[in-house]
Specification:
268 residues, transmembrane helix, cell wall biogenesis/degradation, cell shape, cell membrane, mainly alpha
Length: 268
Amino acid sequence: MDMKTLFDALILGLLEGLTEFIPVSSTGHLLLAGHFLGFQSTGKTFEVLIQLGAILAILSVYFGKLWKMLLALPHDPRTRRFVLGILIAFLPAAIIGAMAHGFIKSVLFETPMLVCIMLILGGFILLYVDRLDLKPRYHDVMDYPLSLCLKIGFVQCLAMIPGVSRSGSTIVGALLMGADKRSAAEFSFFLAMPTMAGAFAYDLFKNRHILSFDDATVIFTGFVMAFIAGVFVVRYLLDYVSRHGFALFAWWRLIVGAAGLAALLVWG
């Protein structure tokens, strides 16, 4: 394994951690950056497996809250309903993701032009939604109705198209269905835990026979960087979103999508 591959893994891991929890599509950024860096991962597993670093970033930041919820689970109906809501929201992605896994990895992940188009389209949608005069009805993720959780879960499935953004789709869906900005982003954090863990476990199982020691080294390098950057983002994102909204992320999507589209048209 050469140093360039490890350096590329560091860059891509940093990108994963910085973009996983903001509505700009971490997978889209990884696929575009990997395309232009000439980075190739076995079975396109790197892009999925380094999400473990981002998962652990959430767990480390939210450990205290998760521990309190675990202790309250046996006797607190509100906590049980919230956990059930997260599981219900996770189900659509689990079922559809397993059924469409081959198509997603072999077709959608191999189409950088699609990534750019989705980044640009999502940028315009974020700008539009951010400027709407919405009247939130839900301000605490613990009080989300189960029906709302299921609807957000179906909206999350749009993120199987690289460039859409898992966090972006769940946040926008929650906003349009009555959540405020902070709770929408927080629900996206909680939903990320089973969704990303499920994607990690399923992809590792499907590709267990083709991964090598070199692959493990590259993946571990990206995982460490994703964890470090993910902790930073999770700690500060909610406060930023509450004060400033999503316009910055929308413009970032438009710039990256347009630059990627131009580069593809010029260099292929």
